[in-house]
């Protein structure tokens, strides 16, 4: 291993920070080290940030590769006394308290926070592809998903970016839905259990989901602080007349609202709404906006189930405008330009992002035949972790078969 | 059942909305029904809000008691044409589209959104009791928790409001930690499994938690979008020298920071930080603020684990101020005025709010004796649901025994 490779791999552990651009120089400024790159970019690295990131074995446990050093133990007036780009291309820093640090150019380039570097990183992380009624649903074969990691990864990329996928060729087995889901990770248990079923119930009707009624577009379990991430829905029997599935992309609807009615978008993303679901042994409530934004102000989820909403509890002055916004949003969830309609046949499974892709069921005639589905949930954390681990080894070649 | 009782119970299902104040009058205004109460309060009920809340059997499914009516199906110019408080004390409303609605005074008083009613409700929901180093930890007997619902409820109230509790008299059984936790609800699985253990490992050291090192105050799994809610930690063997537990109330620290350094508080609650944890089979990342605020701007969680933080990725202009804020916060987590220090003995279990109560472990001498703990997690949703269900039936009499 060359010195440069060594520097690159030092804090890399399971991630790699490949060399992309060379350091061309470094100098000490008032409160930071100014780092210059061969492509002309200049990055300020503030003293505490740089000291906090020191990868030496005094600062990072050699076995666990986790930080031992705590930055509040550095003196408040800490500063760099000397910096240099050495012959191996590393940034060398001598600190006022006697500590010395070295940073590889691969790691440094991946973490510096000048405006250009931040925008570049954020753009790379933006993978969502919004869709409309003409969506080609990404479809994958059960056998291939189970046996081939590259097919698995292609499926998971589609689930993450498109938020609606289908698996075909599922075995006729009541539990196989969890077998496929566990190919990703462990499942998210809820009060429905780990595995649950949808079939028309005559007795014990405690949810509209168990009737033959049309269910409007919704997310499952908006009554939880964190709605389940992926929803898996495996069709074992679908002999009833009616009962087609429809889907709309909540992100597309939020985007349309943001463009066409920015005030409505602002109200729905700003004010929290309570969702409630009560039964004999549970009583769940969650308070969250209908349009959820992430730390960067981008839409990260929608939360919708008309029959589980509590009465809006907002400042009175906002109530008429909020209702207008809610009506606008709801009207869009019925707008044909957004709606994808498909019938799920026996042996097929939907896998969709429950926090993004609203689903609905057309009314069906329970007398016309049986309808039996099994489902489970798995959170986004597990999906994304699995994708990152697969990406370490699989050279992803998309093999989606589009229906 | 009298007509008033009938009105009160109509949409009450598992919740009750007891009659507290009588309606004294109602009138139609430009965009709302103005409702007057016997205690002088006046509540505006906007047309859509009132129509949306209609409890009649056309609007709410009689079996599931969930709403069928969708408010976007009401005409955009919907208005009340006639209102009255009837002889039974109900609000009767006749709508411009021909529909008619009736609302019980108990339900109505519990949901109106004039400023006074909203403040009253919010105050009732504020149950958190922040604590300092002189905390008396609420302590409960295993047998009583398992057998007596009122003890169970007292324990859960303490876990919710104080965020740090202890169970004593635990059987010497490796799995009993889950038996107690399941008295509340199902568990939250993570990549550690459903049940996990803490003992010093010699091989396969992939986390500082499995070393004998001192661990600074932290929350578990800040690398997840939603950190686990309750953490259960059952001590089976503690024969090692050292290794005491310490706790600090993250809400107390956040409050101190808000009072003593409001700019630091603003930075820590505004900017998101990435937490990372990587292993051979998982790679978790979460981006969230260190101080999390709920929809009302109140502190709802803290997210802290110094050794799992990724380098801060913030606008360069904010970096020095952010580091100053982070150092201030970190210094407070070591401040004796906040620290509760206890040794967990064999047969005892901690149960604490992992998103609030930071925990730490003093360094210990692994050669001096064995140390073996078993743990599991359960989310806040399940805790709160269980409390609500117990409150339906248990007349709560607090029986906490304070250590």
Secondary-structure map:
Two copies of one chain form a homodimer.
Chain A: H1 3-9, E1 23-28, E2 32-37, E3 42-46, H2 47-52, E4 80-85, E5 91-95, E6 100-103, H3 105-111, H4 115-125, E7 138-141, H5 142-147, H6 149-161, E8 164-168, H7 176-182, E9 196-198, E10 215-218, E11 230-238, E12 241-242, E13 245-249, H8 250-260, H9 262-270, E14 272-278, E15 283-289, E16 291-293, E17 299-302, H10 319-332, E18 340-342, E19 348-353, E20 357-361, E21 364-365, E22 371-378, H11 380-393, E23 401-402
Parallel strand pairs in A: 7-8
Antiparallel strand pairs in A: 1-2, 2-3, 4-5, 5-6, 7-23, 8-19, 9-22, 10-20, 11-19, 11-22, 12-21, 13-18, 13-20, 14-15, 16-17
Helix pairs in contact in A: 6-11, 8-9, 9-10
Largest sheet descriptor of chain A: 7 strands, mixed
What CATH first level of the largest domain in chain A would be assigned?
Answer: Alpha Beta
Query: For the CA atoms, what is the radius of gyration of chain A?
Result: 26 Å
What fraction, in percent, of the residue positions of chain A are helical?
25-40%
Spans of chain A of at least 5 consecutive residues whose pLDDT stays below 50 are 1-12, 395-403
Quickly count the helices of chain A: 11
Largest interface: A-B, 89 and 88 residues
Assembly state of the chains shown: homodimer
Instruction: Tell me the number of structural domains of chain A.
Output: 2
Structural class of chain A: alpha+beta
Strand order, sheet with most strands of chain A: 9-22-11-19-8-7-23
CATH topology of the largest domain in chain A: Double-stranded beta-helix
Report the β-strand fraction of chain A as a percent range.
Answer: 25-35%
- Specify the CATH homologous superfamily of the largest domain in chain A: Clavaminate synthase-like
Distance between the termini of chain A: 48 Å
**Can you give the mean pLDDT of chain A?**
91
